[in-house]
Amino acid sequence: MIHSMTGYAIAARELEWGSVSVEIRSVNHRYLDVSFRMPDELRPAESALREAIAAVATRGKVECRVAYALRSGGREAAELDGELLTQLLALNAKVRTALPAARELSVADILRWPGMLGSEELPVEELRAVSIELLRDALRDFTAARAREGEKLAAVILERAAEVRERVALVKPRMPEAIAAFQEKLNARLKEALVSADDERVRQEIALFVNKIDVDEELSRLSAHIDELQRILGKGGAAGKRLDFLMQELNREANTLGSKSADMTVTQVSMDLKLLIEQMREQIQNIE
Fold this sequence. Notes:
Number of domains: 3
Largest sheet: 4 strands, mixed
Radius of gyration: 33 Å
Number of helices: 9
Oligomer: single chain
Strand content: 5-15%
Structural class: alpha+beta
């Protein structure tokens, strides 16, 4: 299955002492780049969380947010640690004396200070275990969302690939017509110049023209690349880099086709191909 690098999921749980939530989101990125926003109490669990994410994602800029909220009312009222508060205020005054421009401690800073709310004993071990469980739950939804998005991307790419095949099919029949038109024009010019159309130079000119506009190799490569594109999408997995390389190859053949253009139809087909290839490339940028 093809996966998009874009995804979002959230999981939350209510506990006796409060609530915990894990949110995960990602956007496209060249490599796997995982970042976390979480309380300091959960930093020791970061390695386990990172491993869980790496097990389901190989590319993308992934951000994981973990938050908790203590429930008020079901427990004893929180109380400030008076001794710690006195020490903190003394340190704050000392720092402000040395650095007058420093920002003064806010109420929020004081309340968040480790150990300040003496009666609020956070069950850290339970918090870490629950966070890991919630991340696994969120990753299931996250993976499913990326798979749904990937399915849509693959459908769009295959639709454009079918249009590429249609454009390629228009070119082959044009070659005999282009050669016949060139020969007719050459014969007309030779008649005007009173030169025999059976001259060896005429045959050489036609042979050179045929060689110049021969696009069988380009058409064969375009068809082969589309076959490979469909095979990769059908196989699934982390295919973004391979698909991106295929787009480069397709674009190269489309450019060569345009440079060998023998008439306006081939020129138009070359332009259409480059547009379709660019549309596919834009979608592929989001594929893992």
